[in-house]
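Per reviewer request, we include the raw input and output of the structure prediction for the construct analysed in the revised manuscript.
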Amino acid sequence: MSKEKIAVLKGGRSLERNISLKSGGRVEKALAELGYRVESIDVDAHMVRKLKEAKPDAAFIAMHGSGGEDGTVQELLDILGIPYTGSDVLPSVRCMDKVLTKHIFEADGIPTPPFYAFNRGAFQELGAADTLPYIGEELGFPIVVKPSAQGSALGIRFAHNVDELPAALISAFSFDDKVLLEKYVKGRELAVSIIGSEPRALPIVEAIPKTEFFDFESRYTKGKADYVVPAEIPEETAAEAVAVSLKAFQVLHCDGFGRVDIIMDADGGLHVLEINTIPGLTDTSLMPMAAAAAGISFPQMVDEILRTALERA
């Protein structure tokens, strides 16, 4: 007897479309190997009609960025009554908005780099540009300037002095109407992947970029970064990273799976940057690496993510 029919939602029209297609393709292959009936859907304006015709038992969301991670597709699936993988609408909205996420982190005592944020209207109508020298004094340089609602390090710029801030802001505003200015913390890039109906952490991955920063190219081009899993950090620091990641996951009411990105500074201090509610599932992505280090194959990981959704439904 064949297993459930699963619609794999991938692609879409976000700037992370190509990554999503790769993630979705791997998920489809894994589901087929596991015996599920797979309905592949490259998301477009006909998605709802395609889902109504397919009548899947559940949807595996492999979409990254706007439309996929921001609660949009989750809301439509709720309306259609189709169970889906990952977090539901509210945590998806919160985690996609980096500024909102960081305010929640601060309110709940989760360590995160100091920051300021503006929307486009503050610059166009309220003279926010005049605050840039003050922000530079408060945060110190370099300052990380990033669009609030983009993933995969898209649109991120580094301002090394106050004169570079305007150009960095213009670049970030080309990706989003709200921009985050964050104190740059020099340190080691750690990723804590979380999975399961009772959330647990997989082995920590350290990403070591071969360029100055762990940018889009470093993340998705083979050979542009090295990875160590489990990360070679003190046991107490690893335990602390797991604890703070699980707390962040819980505080934002995330579910199913996700990845928490952390910077560990030279003194061993941890600084939580963000939560990815639908982390990459490509052959260079960090969560599959973490699963493999725990002895979990890619199909087994996909099956657990899906089973969490079906059990919740």
